[in-house]
Write the structure tokens for this entry.
Amino acid sequence: MSGLVALPANAAQAEGPAEERPVLVVDLGGQYSQLIARRVRECRVYSELVPHTVTAAEIRAREPHALVLSGGPASVYAEGAPQIDPGIFELGIPTLGICYGMQLMAQELGGRVDRTGESEFGKTELRTEKGALFAGLPAEQTCWMSHRDSVVAPPAGARVVAGSPSTPVAAFEAPGRGLYGVQFHPEVVHTPYGTDLIVNFLAGVAGAPLTWTAQAVIEEQVERIRAQVGSERVICALSGGVDSAVAALLVYRAVGDQLTCVFVDHGLLRRNEAEQVVETFAGHLEVPLVHVEAGERFLERLSGVEDPEEKRRRIGEEFIRVFEEQAVKLGETRFLVQGTLYSDVIESGGTDGVAAKIKSHHNVGGLPAEMHMSLVEPLRMLFKDEVRRLGEELGLPERMVWRQPFPGPGLAIRIIGEVTRERLEILREADAILQDEIRGAGLYQDLWQSFAVLPAIRSVGVQGDERTYAYPIVIRAVTSEDAMTADWARLPYDLLETISSRIVNEIPAVNRVALDLSSKPPATIEWE
């Protein structure tokens, strides 16, 4: 697992909140659009994703420090290929085009893009010349290319500042117009000097202050929470994970005893997890906590339901109803805090078309149409690694900061099919064995997530001299930086053998263990 995002705690804050003048990343459909936004943030400049349908007027209203046009899978000449408002180029805002973004910029501004027959995919040698983008960087370096079309003539007034053996125009600059383009991908780790180039653009070209820090985020969110909540009572939806914990501490810092945390034990948690949550929050954090045991209620709502989206919707709706009931008991309460992350918003299709809807998160797309409390979501524009950095700054214990992500719907979406009491118990035991062995091997913090999945099917097996007809368990372990992309973890064979042997020997209802070798994309991390 990668280290925390580089957000030093004590750097000086720029005039006004960093969010007031962001860097906007225009999503043109590339697989690395979210990664570009993260890389900009890692350079201590706040960034947001916006759809390619954004207008010049909308961008002008945000007063961004800079724009970045992402890559994309299409050819600029393809029918229906993503386009942008041409007026954006006339705003005078420093703009960096990456891959497809560079090609679109060249096409719109009088350059030429052709299918030359010279494609480049993977590691490529790059020759650079003096310019703002490559200031202080080696004249010869390695970059990561992924393109078939190429810019063969830059826009009028632009100077070519880099080339590769197959792509003479690998980067150009037009400082007078604030336009810059690179054919390669500086946001990926396979471009060793990519982050340096991004910093050169942000600080050297755009003049953006590199001051978006953990402490600055905390201070800004505290002020926003106070402005939103005022003197009203607030309840916080606790799950036991780092997201809800950080959200709770931010709100508690902002409004103190106006906050009451509500932990709903929906009966879909892992073994002993409910007890651990109560001990941690009531003991360590010393925040008022209400523990609601609602397992039977949720199990009843899930009876007969197999569709994963319906599971999420029912769980999300039941969560809100439980919170509303607790709010009544606590007195008039107008606000509900949730630990919604930026990746949740993107995957739920909640950023004005930036991403197609992948799945409904129980605390985003699964909310009921009629809800009687207003949401407070202080983490809504943060990625997971950024939330962990805030958690450290806020004093959360290490085991909580580094707890692997666990979905709000819990084990319900790790049972593929109807959720029953029997299946929950089987999956709990299998997951407990997996976590025990992963921790014992010292691999827990190296993995983004590791968990067991129970498909509601049975297969034939043989144990002793008897035929069995039992469930399979699927092991899912992935590495990732932010859950937007993930790779399957290469667990040692002897560890996998131990896990498999323990599961089939200790759980009579299981006779088969499989390993999920899928990356994201094309698969998602969770099965549902």
